[in-house]
């Protein structure tokens, strides 16, 4: 029977390592337990926090509501000609899924190697890295509607994916809990080397005809060199989104700062490297109290030990202000703020 615990520390359930408590806590190992949980009306009108890997959140204070940890496991796959469909429980670790697919030569996820978090969170955030986004390999997801106690399947179109956005963060925020995700991969790899340092690192390794395993290893190596391991120092990966600006603003900015790091982002749009902007403001590797920015990547905020959520949030606000003052560009937090 489903157990509801009280006053549970969420420190081990968030990669920042923030020691905040949840008033109530439930762990879900099977989708039927969601129906059981919400059959009790007291949980319908209480603040809820759905936890996966806890890698994209900042707990600013204790959570006075119900924290629900999704631990639904399982990976099933089906092959049809060159197409591979992989159905995955929301509680699976994202990188375990990537390794599962790369080991079997199921292509499409290799650029998304070593992203922290759970499978269930991946469509909510439309996670992405090195020129690939979740939507590029997404087929559908199954989700529980809290208000009705029923399940619904969402297509790619239903999810309204955008840059680090989906319908689950906008008009349907808080209404559904994802229980499984289906991916569409291929046995015919289309190697993507266009973004970041992947191609150069492959050259450095003497690899001229890379496999998806080669790409996965290189991406993992690059990420390890830039990003701290949450098991050794608390962090949530990239704290800010890379801002997207229009052509007029970009040309003015480029006139002032010719070295501004940028990437095309559609017609008349340019994506700026938030890490570069932050570094230019002198934040890279800086320590402020118990928190700070990572020595190898200014985009990552870290908990040096004992930091509160308020401390981390305050630092992020200072960074936003300084980038806006210097560049006229407003950064947005990528991490979900739980307050």
From TrEMBL:
Gene Ontology process terms (BP): cell division; cell wall organization; peptidoglycan biosynthetic process; regulation of cell shape
One Pfam family matching this protein: FAD_binding_4
Pathway the protein contributes to: Cell wall biogenesis; peptidoglycan biosynthesis
GO molecular function: FAD binding; UDP-N-acetylmuramate dehydrogenase activity
Active-site positions on this chain: 164, 238, 334
Cofactor: FAD
Compartment(s) where it occurs, according to its Swiss-Prot or TrEMBL record: Cytoplasm
Membership in a protein family: Belongs to the MurB family.
Reported function: Cell wall formation.
Protein name: UDP-N-acetylenolpyruvoylglucosamine reductase
């Amino acid at each position: 029977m489903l157990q509801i615990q009280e006053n549970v520390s969420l420190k081990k359930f968030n990669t920042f390592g923030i020691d905040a408590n949840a008033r109530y806590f439930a762990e879900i190992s099977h989708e039927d337990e969601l129906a059981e949980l919400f059959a009790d009306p007291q949980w319908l009108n209480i603040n809820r926090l759905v936890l996966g890997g806890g890698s994209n959140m900042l707990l600013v204070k204790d959570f006075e509501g119900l924290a629900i940890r999704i631990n639904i496991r399982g990976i099933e796959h089906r092959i049809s000609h060159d197409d591979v469909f992989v159905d995955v429980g929301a509680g699976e670790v994202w990188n375990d899924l990537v390794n599962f697919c790369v080991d079997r030569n199921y292509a499409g996820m290799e650029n998304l190697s070593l992203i922290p978090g759970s499978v269930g969170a991946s469509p909510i955030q439309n996670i992405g890295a090195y020129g690939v986004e979740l939507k590029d390999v997404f087929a559908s997801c199954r989700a529980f509607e809290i208000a009705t106690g029923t399940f619904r399947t969402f297509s790619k179109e239903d999810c309204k994916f955008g840059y680090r956005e989906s319908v689950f963060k906008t008009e349907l925020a808080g209404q559904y809990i994802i229980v499984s995700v289906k991916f569409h991969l291929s046995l015919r790899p289309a190697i993507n080397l266009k973004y970041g340092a992947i191609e150069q690192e492959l050259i450095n390794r003497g690899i001229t005809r890379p496999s998806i395993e080669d790409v996965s290893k290189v991406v993992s190596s690059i990420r390890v060199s830039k990003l701290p391991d949450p098991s050794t120092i608390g962090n949530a990966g990239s704290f800010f989104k890379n801002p997207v600006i229009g052509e007029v603003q970009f040309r003015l900015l480029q006139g002032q700062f010719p070295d501004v790091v940028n990437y095309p982002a559609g017609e008349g749009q340019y994506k700026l490297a938030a890490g570069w902007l932050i570094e230019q403001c002198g934040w890279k590797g800086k320590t402020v109290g118990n928190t700070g920015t990572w020595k190898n990547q200014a985009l990552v905020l870290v908990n040096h030990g004992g930091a509160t959520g308020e401390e981390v949030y305050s630092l992020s606000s200072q960074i936003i202000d300084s980038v806006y003052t210097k560049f006229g560009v407003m950064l947005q937090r990528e991490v979900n703020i739980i307050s």
